[in-house]
Write a structure and sequence with these properties.
The protein has 153 residues and is an alpha+beta fold. The protein contains two helices and ten strands; from the N terminus they run E-H-E-E-E-E-E-E-E-H-E-E. It is globular and about 40 Å long.
C-alpha cells in the first residue's frame, strides 16, 4: 500500500506565526530548543539553539468526539519543510502510536503501537484494515500528535 505523510501545513503555520494564537486562541509560546524537541513542520528533532514555537494544534479530523487539541513544536520562522518522501529518518527506532481513524473521525480498532523498527510495514498494516482512512502518528510517552498518514491518491 502506498501512502503520504503530512507534516503541519505551511499555510496553517504562517497563520499561527502571524496571529501569535493557537487553535484555541491561546498565545503561542516562543522557546529556544534544548535539542531533541520533535518539530512538526519539518518532521525532525530540533537542534539545540533553534528558535521554536510551542502551540496547541487540532489535527485534521471530521467533526467527531475524537477531535482534540494538543501541544506541538514548530520552527518560529518558516523552514524548508520535511525532506521529500517517506518516514522521517531521524524518527526511525522511536516507538509511536499509530492511531487509526475511520471516515467519521472515530478511532478505529486497527490502532496499534509500533517499536519504530519497520514503520513502513506498521503503517501499511494499519492503513490496510477495512474502514481506515487516516492515521495519526503520536508520541508514546506524551500522546502528542506527530504527523498524519493517508492512503496515496
Amino acid at each position: 500500500m502506498t501512502y503520504e505523510i503530512h507534516a503541519l501545513p505551511a499555510a496553517l503555520l504562517d497563520t499561527v506565526r502571524a496571529s501569535g494564537l493557537d487553535a484555541s486562541g491561546n498565545p503561542v509560546e516562543r522557546v529556544t530548543a534544548t535539542g531533541g524537541e520533535p518539530v512538526r513542520c519539518c518532521l525532525r528533532d530540533a537542534a539545540a539553539g533553534e528558535e521554536l514555537m510551542l502551540f496547541g494544534y487540532e489535527p485534521p479530523l471530521p467533526p467527531s468526539p475524537y477531535r482534540e487539541v494538543g501541544a506541538v513544536f514548530a520552527h518560529a520562522e518558516r523552514c524548508a519543510g520535511p525532506d521529500a518522501g517517506g518516514y522521517p529518518e531521524g524518527w526511525r527506532g522511536r516507538s509511536q502510536v499509530l492511531r487509526a481513524y475511520d471516515a467519521r473521525g472515530w478511532i478505529h480498532p486497527a490502532t496499534r503501537v509500533h517499536d519504530g523498527s519497520d514503520p513502513e510495514a506498521a503503517i501499511a498494516k494499519v492503513l490496510a484494515a477495512p474502514g481506515v482512512v487516516r492515521v495519526h502518528s503520536r508520541n508514546v510517552a506524551y500522546g502528542c500528535y506527530m504527523f498524519t498518514v493517508v492512503p496515496a491518491v
